[in-house]
Write the structure tokens for this entry.
Amino acid sequence: MLPPSPDYAELKRLIKAAGLLESQTRYFAFKFASTALLYAITVAIVLAVDHPAVVLAAAVFLGFVFTHVGFLGHDLAHRQITHRSRLVSSLGLIIGNLLIGVSYSWWTAKHNQHHATPNHSEQDPDLDYPMLVFESASIRDRKRRFYPVIAYQAFLYLFLGAFQAIGMRAQAVAQVLSGRSPRRTAEGLTLALHALLYVLMLFQIGHWGLSLAFLFVHQMTFGLYNTLVFAPNHKGMPMIDESNRMDYLREQVLTARNVTAHPVIDFLYGGLNYQIEHHLFPAMARNKLRAAQPLVRAFCAERGIDYAQTGPLQGLIEPLRHLHAVSAPLRRGSRAA
């Protein structure tokens, strides 16, 4: 990670003086309780009701709930909830592995690297997809068999994103089997328990066809919702490499894009619509990001730093336009230079 710049130090003093870095115990207690309640109610409906329409509606809603559980895991990883490392690790196993079937150690390592090098063409793991490119020069690094997909990646992006949940499950298994997990046994057991409980829930549905439909709808909703939340954050924003690294403040601001603030948007995005503020102050509780935004935006304006913000629809259109533009060499029948 780049060392903090004098500008960043000044901004942090402003943010701290405004009380925006203080712990938010009551807020997170409410978020934990309300999310757990929604999770329990949704599973109870699946187990108690056998009407296909209700079961499939519950599958959609459970995908929504899984994403909000993931938001809490994100808050936890950034030490927004607690600074006690052992508690973070233990809660991470519950939130990530047990409740949503995602390896917490794999996701945390990946996400920390993303924060350290956002939109870095070689070091940001959020740009490392076999069937997607975010700059034309990356085409040559992809396997030729994926070229037909990459050529029309903008049209396939949401479809591919729906399978993101399946990819995360595969990464979770690989994390445990590879030995990369610092708590291999605990991670393996909690992931296995999640899988067991999930299969038991599917059996409880009764009809195998409806069970498979529930599985498909739930996992696709989970993946698609994640994709819609994360797509606006950095996709289509300036890329960096070792030749054009900037100071910490500018690198975090210029590579990120906010989605216009609104209470409903804040809830649906889990606070990640304030991507610029979150990247500048990852440990800031998400309920304080809205108050931080005008301070950060004014600070950037004073220093001539571009501050990107758009509406939710445009926040999806802009990344798709970028994906279409960078894959143009394949549609012209050539590879990128």
Remarks:
- The two ends are 30 Å apart (CA to CA).
- The chain has a mean pLDDT of 95.
- Residues 118 and 168 are 20 Å apart (CA to CA).
